[in-house]
Write a structure and sequence with these properties.
By secondary structure, the protein is mainly beta. It contains 3 helices and 18 strands. Residues 2-62 form the Conserved virulence factor B first S1 domain.
């Protein structure tokens, strides 16, 4: 329950705030400033639960950036002798202890972290040692399977991503046709499951499904731009990448398909609706 959003019942309201029924946690205090005027004893209220500085169960109606068990990009607000305190979108900041910082954090910088509950103190903490929180069992994915990605960092060969919040994968630079940044969430597809269990990821649908989707995007762009676009099979690959977040090869396949269907006319550096 700590570090989660729960629906709790108000047991008592006084001048300081309200006491909520926290079950095994006992009474959970909700400050007066967070209590809506229309609420009364017996009413349910949705809250995020944490321990205050004195270790008392406390609630807030504000939604945190991340709950326990989730990954999130958080900004460091202060460096102290015990670690880095990070902004989680509520009054209570989250501590990232020094032994959970990989790399060592700097004030004002943002880091992708996993939110966890410290067993000893029962306090909500953050860790940028992401390797601790990914699944160690071999991944059970199929080629072309759609997955959800979180960008974890940049390497010499591409972008390191967390796949379905459980395994690491990589998107090679050759497969990147859009802006990517740490903490970004986006869909992807399994390109390859290697024998060593490592995952190669692509951001575009594999096979002809990718070309069909791109063809539809091109048609929509043509309609939105008066029936003509200054892009053709001789255009600069960077211009194509900027417009459609895809390679020139895929763009040529897509416009070739649209031309064969009699939907567009082709010029060296432009296309137009028929």
């Amino acid at each position: 329950m700590l570090g989660q959003i729960e629906l709790l019942t108000i047991e008592e309201i006084n001048a300081e705030g309200a006491y909520l029924n926290g079950g095994q946690l006992g009474d959970v205090f909700l400050p007066k400033a967070e209590l809506a005027d229309h609420l009364e004893a017996g009413d349910p209220v949705q809250v995020f639960i944490y321990l205050d500085n004195a270790g008392h169960p406390t609630a807030t109606t504000k939604k945190p950036i991340a709950k326990v068990g989730e990954f999130a990009l958080l900004r460091v607000k202060e460096i102290t002798t015990v670690g880095a305190f990070m902004d989680n979108g509520i009054a209570k900041d989250i501590l990232a202890p020094y032994n959970e910082q990989k790399p060592k954090m700097q004030d004002g910088h943002s880091y992708l972290v996993r939110i966890y509950l410290d067993n000893a103190s029962q306090r909500i903490c953050a860790s940028s040692n992401l390797k601790k929180f990914v699944d160690k069992t071999p991944p059970n994915y199929q080629k072309s399977q759609q997955v959800e990605l979180i960008v974890a960092g940049k390497t010499d060969i591409g972008y390191k991503v967390i796949v379905n919040e459980s395994h690491f994968g990589v998107v090679f630079f050759s497969d990147v046709f859009q802006r990517m940044y740490v903490g970004q969430r986006l869909p992807g597809f399994i390109k390859n499951v290697r024998e060593d269990g490592k995952l190669d990821i692509t951001l575009e649908k594999p096979g002809m499904a990718k070309i069909d989707d791109l063809g539809e995007k091109i048609l929509q762009a043509l309609k939105a731009n008066g029936g003509k676009l200054p892009l053709g099979d001789k255009s600069d690959p960077e211009l194509i990448k900027k417009q459609f977040q895809t390679s020139k090869a895929n763009f040529k396949k897509a416009i070739g398909g649209l031309f064969k269907q009699g939907l567009i006319d082709l010029q060296a550096t432009s296309i137009s609706l028929k």
